[in-house]
Design brief:
Blueprint: E1 2-7, E2 14-19, E3 22-28, H1 30-33, H2 43-53, E4 62-65, H3 73-82, H4 88-102, H5 104-112, H6 116-120, E5 123-125, H7 128-137, E6 144-154, E7 157-165, E8 168-176, H8 181-191, H9 200-206, H10 215-218, E9 222-224, E10 230-232, E11 246-247, E12 253-254, H11 261-267, H12 279-307, E13 311-315, H13 322-325, H14 328-331, E14 336-338, H15 347-360, H16 380-390, E15 395-396, H17 399-411, E16 416-419, E17 433-437, H18 444-453, E18 462-466, H19 470-473, E19 485-488, H20 491-494, E20 506-512, H21 518-531, E21 535-540, H22 551-560, E22 565-568, E23 571-574
Parallel strand pairs: 1-4, 4-5, 6-13, 13-14, 16-22, 18-20
Antiparallel strand pairs: 1-2, 2-3, 6-7, 7-8, 9-10, 11-12, 15-23, 16-17, 17-21, 18-21, 19-20, 22-23
Helix pairs in contact: 7-15, 8-12, 17-21
């Protein structure tokens, strides 16, 4: 049975394809379009998925769309009744988007030549947050687990809780738009001077430089409720009737200022993009992060009371808050936490397909997902042909030579672009499309920013660590395959890996498994044999663009930056 999952007309549009419940391929459309957070119809991602199975769209049995505009109809009517006039343009825009979702079979028919009526019979619309829940629970190793989806908004819901058992998810409760922890965090992201869609991670990186001095003030904006959920004080935010996230003709998400005049009156005027970051801004970031964590823990503590299970699966945009994720087992009764590699909206395609396979069609669970390597792949032969055509000098090394050669470059202060195997599904580079450096070098962070990244100095770089050595370096022992959690680094180890130790003594780790990531594992193991440190600094292979997808894009990034070495499979290019 083949199921194609699609996230369309929503930020981070994507496609995923499954055969008998196993994910064969999944990728974001932005990897092909080279435009971050692209939100149109994922034509290129769909075509890629079909090619990976060497099939046509006609051979797909079911098509799962991660959006269902028909849900919560009465809730939407109630909302409109409270804002009958000011909501007009907002409703018009959302209705237009709904029409797009409803006409997907016509778009697919134009692409494939298959009759639209035939395709319509195959289409399932799966609610946004149920897709998120499915992407986390059905990919997890747990037979039974609590489930939480939490983000800005989707299908008029911002938060959904439930319990998963075997091949079924039961929804317990949800929070309606506009009461949203994602909106709360984004409003302060904008107030702190980070205006772009997806900038929330900058606040998370800035927070450790401050003290949470303003938590009491923030408590007037968000209230944890007795039902285990929360509410916003909407008087501080943009009027919800005017709409929040919109999409232009270029299919890019546009987010207006979500903070209101009352918020600026209490916390100060929004910082302009190029204005200096003061200690006040850092303290405000710390306070926003703190109250966000407290709200998440409130939801999870009450969810545990309702379910009584020891494991929880989490997805949604707020699930990308790796600092909060790393604290869950220490601040709630949950002992195990699973978050997928694409916990953000790109994972909707994966989750919608899984929901249809397991919940709708009652198919049994399959093996858990610990690998994010579901994207594009290129042979050494194809890479060599590209380089020859461009007249680029290169050398081909045998595996045992390659690892030692690259490690010597890293030890001598080199910055290496590492392109190996299938691209990752999700926003994090995990050793397939990575830029690497020596974590022992105190100047590695500055080197990376000078040579390539040119990003804010307060943003940390992440450690990839061999799975067997986590307890030696981190205070929390866990499997973290997707770099989705931040843990404290042991004080005795911080000085030995300064490049990946954040100002608060933490690191957003990726645990590297020998079977899942054999080449990346061997590279780190070679580094360990040479230095005694089983860790490499890992950051995404890009420069203010989506992560590179092809050898050509990797080469372009190498040539326009000051990277020292580029490794494309077994091919090495040096300056």
């Amino acid at each position: 049975m083949i199921i194609l999952g699609i996230n369309a007309y929503h930020a981070d549009s994507s496609a995923a394809i499954f055969k008998d419940g196993v994910m064969i391929a999944a990728t974001e459309e932005e990897r092909f379009r080279r435009i971050k957070h692209w939100a149109g119809f994922p034509v290129l991602a769909i075509e890629f998925c079909l090619r990976e199975l060497n099939i046509s769209l006609q051979e797909v049995d079911h098509i799962a769309i991660g959006r269902d505009p028909s849900v919560k109809f009465w809730n939407k009517l109630l909302f409109l009744s409270k804002h009958p006039f000011s909501s007009f343009h907002f409703v018009k825009d959302r209705f237009f988007n709904q029409k797009k979702v409803a006409s997907i079979e016509e778009i697919l028919a134009d692409l494939s030549g298959v009759d639209a009526f035939v395709l319509k019979q195959k289409i399932h619309q799966v609610e946004h947050h149920r897709s998120h829940l499915a992407s986390a629970f059905f990919a997890s190793p747990f037979e039974e687990a609590a489930v939480l989806s939490i983000d800005g908004s989707g299908d008029f819901t911002t938060t959904m809780i439930g319990i998963g058992k075997a091949n079924h998810i039961q929804v317990i409760d949800s929070v309606d738009f506009p009461h949203s922890l994602g909106i709360f965090y984004t409003a302060f992201t904008q107030l702190l001077g980070f205006p772009h869609y997806g900038d929330e991670y900058k606040v998370m990186g800035l927070a450790p430089y401050g003290e949470p001095k303003y938590v009491n003030k923030l408590q007037d904006l968000i209230t944890c409720t007795s039902d285990g959920l929360f509410q916003l004080n909407l008087s501080y935010f943009r009027s919800p009737s005017k709409g929040f996230v919109g999409y232009g003709e270029d299919h890019l998400p546009v987010v207006p200022a979500l903070f209101g005049q009352k918020m600026e009156a209490l916390f100060g005027k929004a910082r302009t993009k190029d204005a200096p970051l003061t200690q006040y801004h850092k303290d405000l970031a710390a306070s926003v992060q703190k109250i966000t964590e407290e709200t998440i823990f409130h939801i999870l503590n009450n969810l545990h009371k309702k379910t009584g299970v020891e494991a929880v699966c989490i997805a949604g945009g707020v699930a990308q808050n790796s600092v909060a994720n790393g604290k869950i087992t220490r601040n709630t009764p949950f002992k195990k936490v699973y978050i997928p590699s694409a916990g953000h909206d790109a994972g909707i395609s994966m989750g919608a397909a899984q929901f249809v396979y397991h919940q709708t069609l009652h198919q049994p669970r399959v093996n858990p997902v610990y690998s994010a390597y579901t994207g594009a792949n290129f042979s050494s032969k194809k890479i060599a042909a590209i380089l020859q055509e461009k007249g680029i000098n290169y050398k081909i090394l045998k595996p045992e030579e390659l690892y030692t050669y690259v490690v010597e470059k890293l030890i001598n202060g080199g910055v290496v672009g590492w392109f190996n195997g299938r691209a990752e599904f999700g926003p994090r580079a995990l050793g397939a499309r990575s830029i690497l450096a020596d974590p022992r070098r105190a100047d590695a962070k500055d080197l990376l920013n000078i040579k390539i990244k040119r990003r804010e100095s307060f943003r940390p770089f992440a450690p990839s660590i061999l799975e067997e050595y986590v307890t030696e370096y981190f205070e929390v022992n866990d499997i973290v395959p997707f770099m989705e959690k931040v843990f404290p680094i042991k004080p005795s180890k911080r000085a030995s890996i300064p490049a990946v130790t954040h100002v608060d003594g933490t690191g957003r780790l990726q645990t590297v498994n020998k079977k899942i990531s054999p080449h990346y594992y061997q590279l780190i193991e070679t580094f360990r044999q040479k230095t005694g440190v089983p860790i490499l600094l890992n950051t995404s292979f890009n420069e203010n663009e989506p992560i590179v997808n092809t050898p050509q894009e990797a080469l372009d990034c190498f040539l326009r930056t000051s990277m020292d070495m580029l490794v494309l499979e077994d091919i090495v290019i040096e300056r």
